[in-house]
Amino acid sequence: MAKTSIVASEAAHFGAMAGDWWDPNGASAMLHKLNPVRLCYIRDQVDQLWGLDEHSLRPLAGKTALDVGCGAGLLAEPLARLGARVTAIDAAPELIEAAKAHAFGGHLDIDYRSIGVEDLDGQFDLVTALEVIEHVVDPQAFVEALVARLAPGGLLLLSTPNRTGWSKLLTITLAEGLGRIPRGTHDYGKFIDPDQMRGLLAKAGMEVIDVEGIAFSPTRGLHLSEDTRLNYLVSCRRAPPDTSCLSRGSKRLNGLRQFA
Asked: Domains (ranges, CATH) in the chain?
């Protein structure tokens, strides 16, 4: 496993955006538009996995949550309002300071730390890493570090741009080219398609529960969709133990007993 998932230049790039992170019209405007879509998906997945009341205002009460690559808290704050005891980490100390200040103003108790996930102790019921994996040193090592932080019976959620021409066009050519996203935010060579993501998760001992696309249209804006070409979310849990070897061994033993 890599010693750290953090790319220093990536941390510096996002850290420079700390000043207006909470401005819905600032450098992080696209994340502000994306966040309600992600929250809708998260709420649906936690309700389904844990059999929660979909009408509850605090469905995550009694649960712990870890948000990796939290920025200045766009996702961590809603998770706290949903009742979770939230730990949120980011590689950019400037973002963590902005996150702490914003949470203080909103009277939210969130444990913010500028640290890599590999250096964090403990396990959490819910682990999120949204729009992060395309910015790390080693995606496989990063996934394994996320899984190490996941408590038994827990839920891991990731999102990332798909590796398609459509995603490159909208995310880099248009969004970055027109200044909707700061230039240099994305490297198409680090985009991950759903099949590759499934492979990374399977190798880390995870079972994919659901894959949902995030699509864009002029009339609906960003929205959940079966179309994964632009961006997608993945929900997963630890894979059940493989009992096939035990089963084969049992059948072989029963077969030998017939000749005893």
From this structure: 8-257 (3.40.50.150)
